[in-house]
Amino acid sequence: MLARTYLIASLAVSAVIAMLPLKASAEAAAAAYPAKPIRLVFPWTSGGSLSDLTRSLADGLSQRLGQPVVVDYKPGASSTIAAGLVARAAPDGYTLLIGGNPTYAINQFTHRHLPYDPAVDLAPIALVASAPFFVMTGPSLPVSNFNELLAYARSHPGKLSYGTPGIGSVPHLSVVRFAEQAGLDLVHVPYNGQSQFMTDLMGGHIDLVFSAAGFQYIQSGKVNGLAVTSTQRVASVPSIPTVAEAGVKGFDAEVWWGIAAPRGTPPAIVDKLNVAINTIIGDPAFKKRFDEAGYRFEPGTPAQFATRIQGEIPVWRNVVARANLTGGE
């Protein structure tokens, strides 16, 4: 018995000793990180406030980490191309992804052949920002506030159309939720991008949109901003009520973006990136640059970001199922 106990103890000690060089190597790599430029993959086309935010974040990371952080645009397929690329990259902290709700919590339900598994292939680092949608109508629709929109839509079932960046996008699924809660029958018109549906909204070809980038259009007077989908009003346009305030109690929808790395990236590198990102997005000067877009910055830990993702998965799974979108390409 004593010999057996001694053998087990010896094996345990040997295992610990064998792991020490690996731990030391990982710690050394993290301490030296980064030793070369970092690639931040952006899943959409350049241009717009999110692209500006990402470039500003990359600039801030370059300054804090001492190595260039290069934004690499890889648009297409609702961010699945970019996410698949990052998922297959070496887990060394030199290839990062900025993704949104679809990347981490929705695509797995709307795409049959997803080139990555967000829960298995990606390691959350930090939530960067979130933003509500502006509920906007065009000048041809005879409504001037949110309650009038609800009344008009209810008296014209199946007549009002809404534009989105595409089937299964966050705006699309958010309007599906909104219509269900408000008891509306709306017609979906999918587009390939925001600029197209905003042009059609201003031209009177569609009636309604949910857009996170609505401030500039509302400010120009070319569209009517009737409500915001967050639980609180947007500071840049405090006169616009929330959807919940204006008549659809409990409704809340927003789009958010966060940074992830390939699964297996050393925790010390993940933590180092998390601290750098939180420092940047917590800077008042940085936040002020994006106030008008309605962005809310929420510094937090990798675990908190992972919890945010996990909390949204059942919500979007149910919406996708009700919208009959499960199992797309």
Automatic annotation (TrEMBL):
<dbReference type="Pfam" id="PF03401">
    <property type="entry name" value="TctC"/>
</dbReference>
<keyword id="KW-0732">Signal</keyword>
<feature type="signal peptide">
    <location>
        <begin position="1"/>
        <end position="26"/>
    </location>
</feature>
<keyword id="KW-0675">Receptor</keyword>
<dbReference type="InterPro" id="IPR005064">
    <property type="entry name" value="BUG"/>
</dbReference>
<protein>
    <submittedName>
        <fullName>Tripartite-type tricarboxylate transporter receptor subunit TctC</fullName>
    </submittedName>
</protein>
<comment type="similarity">
    <text>Belongs to the UPF0065 (bug) family.</text>
</comment>
<dbReference type="InterPro" id="IPR042100">
    <property type="entry name" value="Bug_dom1"/>
</dbReference>
